[in-house]
Write a structure and sequence with these properties.
The protein has 15 helices and 14 strands. It is of the alpha+beta class and 539 residues long. The strands form three sheets. A five-stranded antiparallel sheet has the order 6-5-9-8-7. It has a five-stranded mixed sheet with strand order 10-11-12-14-13, covered by helices on one side. It has a four-stranded antiparallel sheet with strand order 1-4-3-2. Helix 1 runs antiparallel to helix 6, helix 11 packs across helix 13 and helix 14 packs antiparallel against helix 15. Helices cover 48% and strands 20% of the residues. It is rod-shaped, with a radius of gyration of 54 Å. The longest helix has 48 residues.
Length: 539
């Protein structure tokens, strides 16, 4: 079976088991080598010590001067050999002739091994390894000196290498038992560790993790909202392409790994890192731009390990809101138009059933003439199709509300200047007309009238909206364009005129409120037709 076909848990388990077996084997062989070397070294020192002790014995020295040294030396050597567990203690004269040996038959014969010169010639005590009559042995050799300092003999104390190996072998079972238990514990630990690692990775294989990482990266980069992540030290760990653009960071700048306060000095994202509480729809001013940010803590258990933040330019959100508002107004206009034509059809149906054909024809001609006159005027004097569309919608909505909606016959518009966004202009117009309709609806004492005047003659695009409503108190004029301020009851108020002011400011225009001819409010908006410089956000 190929290794790549195995699952991650199996691969980790096999790898750790192989590693443990290798390490345990190496340690076992090293232990055996160290033990063998230690035993050999200790027995060598022991043999040398015994050899020196025997060589210094007066009995041995004096015996070497007698006619039959073996008779005295053999009993002494054998006694000492038995007490020290040595394999042999051989004592010889200067010519290497034995005077003691575990095998008495070898007494009187020359010592074997060829390793006596250092002691007999150089007078040194040393440890050697050589093969004698009993086999390969570890020997301690020491010269025997007389009273005059002359070398008169040699003592050789030996332990067979076979016995040394046997001593080391006595530890084999213990050594292999420890190695086996270590291997078993290691294997059990490897299985547990592999399973734990697998659980930490949610049961995913490396290939699946790599695939998810690629998908995650592609997904994050494809999102139009800016996405930023910081770790628990407050350093940036992720920033997508949209975030670079929104935060006005150049691509060549390496911000990953930098503290977030160096990149966004006045951010409050670190508060989320400290207290673990989410922050939603927070506004942030950065390089003249207003950003709406949401921040959520990233947790493992109860520990906050980072924060993820998504953000977008407020201008984009406002534009989307405005577009949705326009769609809503178009829908309302179409509904009003449908309702108005249904009423007309019901009236025509009733007149026909009553056989009042002349009245039915007169009604059709009248409605057709009024409608065609309004549409033809818009088509001839107001060239922007979107503007014409919304005005026809407001015309039908006014008929449904029984409001006399008048488009000043002096109105004219050739085209909007290039720097004037048509969505801005229509939003301004729509909010002012809607505000006028609501104003006249609240004034039940007068005829419901709203007048609109648009012209691009001169240096400015001029827009006037007048109504016969209650008007605006002079004391309220300084507050009328502030967000959340309204003279009307109910929720979701105080946004329309504030939005008009924001859009007019964006277009470097001006807006004024006066008292109209019908004693209601007259809103006058002037927008320069020439570009006055780069648009600057008013947030």
């Amino acid at each position: 079976m190929k290794l790549k076909k195995l699952k991650l848990q199996q691969r980790i388990t096999l790898f750790i088991i192989a590693l443990i077996i290798l390490i345990v084997s190496q340690i076992s062989f090293l232990f055996y080598y160290v033990l063998s070397d230690t035993v050999e070294n200790q027995l060598g020192k022991r043999a040398l010590h015994v050899a020196k002790t025997v060589a210094a014995m007066p009995e041995i020295r004096s015996a070497l001067h007698t006619e039959n040294p073996a008779a005295i030396i053999q009993p002494i050597a054998e006694r000492i050999r038995l007490e020290t567990d040595a394999e042999f203690i051989v004592i010889g004269n200067k010519q290497g002739i034995r005077y003691s040996h575990p095998n008495p038959q070898r007494i009187g014969k020359r010592m074997m091994g060829g390793d006596n010169d250092k002691a007999l010639v150089d007078g040194k005590a040393y440890i050697s390894k050589a093969k004698g009559t009993l086999g390969l042995s570890l020997r301690g050799k020491a010269p025997i000196w007389d009273e005059n300092g002359n070398i008169i003999g040699i003592v050789s104390v030996g332990f067979l290498m076979e016995d040394i190996n046997q001593i080391v072998g006595e530890y084999d079972y213990t050594m292999w038992g420890i190695a086996l238990s270590g291997a078993v514990i290691g294997i059990i630990g490897s299985v547990y560790l592999a399973r734990n690692i697998k659980n930490l990775m949610f049961g995913l294989e490396p290939e699946e993790i790599a695939s998810l990482y690629e998908e995650r990266s592609a997904l994050i980069q494809s999102v139009r909202e800016g996405i930023m992540m910081i770790d628990k030290q407050g350093r940036i760990s992720l920033l997508n392409q949209a975030a670079y653009e929104i935060l006005l960071i150049r691509q060549e700048q390496n911000v990953i790994g930098r503290p977030v306060l160096e990149v966004i000095p006045n951010t409050s994202i670190l508060e989320v890192l400290r207290n673990g509480e989410e922050q939603l729809d927070r506004q942030l001013k950065l390089k003249g731009r207003t950003i709406i940010a949401n921040r959520l803590p990233v947790k493992i258990g109860n520990e906050v390990i980072g924060v993820v933040s998504s953000f977008r330019l407020k201008s984009e959100i406002d534009q989307l809101t405005e577009e949705l508002s326009q769609v809503k107004r178009y829908t309302e206009a179409l509904r009003a138009q449908t309702h108005e034509f249904n009423n007309l059809l019901y009236t025509l149906s009733g007149l026909i059933q009553l056989e009042s054909y002349e009245e039915a024809l007169e009604l059709v001609h009248k409605e057709t003439a009024v409608q065609q006159d309004f549409v033809q005027f818009i088509m001839s004097r107001l060239k922007d199709p979107r503007l014409g569309g919304i005005l026809i919608g407001f015309y039908n909505r006014a008929k449904e509300l029984k409001i006399n909606f008048v488009l000043d016959r002096e109105s004219s518009l050739e085209r909007l200047a290039e720097h004037i966004d048509s969505s801005y202009f229509i939003s301004i117009l729509g909010n002012l007309i809607t505000n006028a309709f609501e104003s006249v609806e609240r004034n039940t004492d007068k005829e419901k009238q709203v007048r609109l005047y648009i012209t691009d003659i001169g240096d400015d695009l001029l827009l006037e909206v007048e109504d016969s409503g209650l008007g605006v108190d002079d004391n309220l004029i300084p507050y009328i364009f502030k967000r959340d301020f309204s003279t009307k009851d109910g929720g979701n108020r105080g946004y329309g005129l504030a939005r008009v002011k924001e859009l007019v400011d964006d277009l470097h225009g001006s807006i004024a409120i006066e008292k109209g001819d019908w004693d209601g409010a007259l809103f006058i908006v002037a927008i320069p037709k020439e570009r006055c410089g780069e648009n600057v956000s008013a947030y």
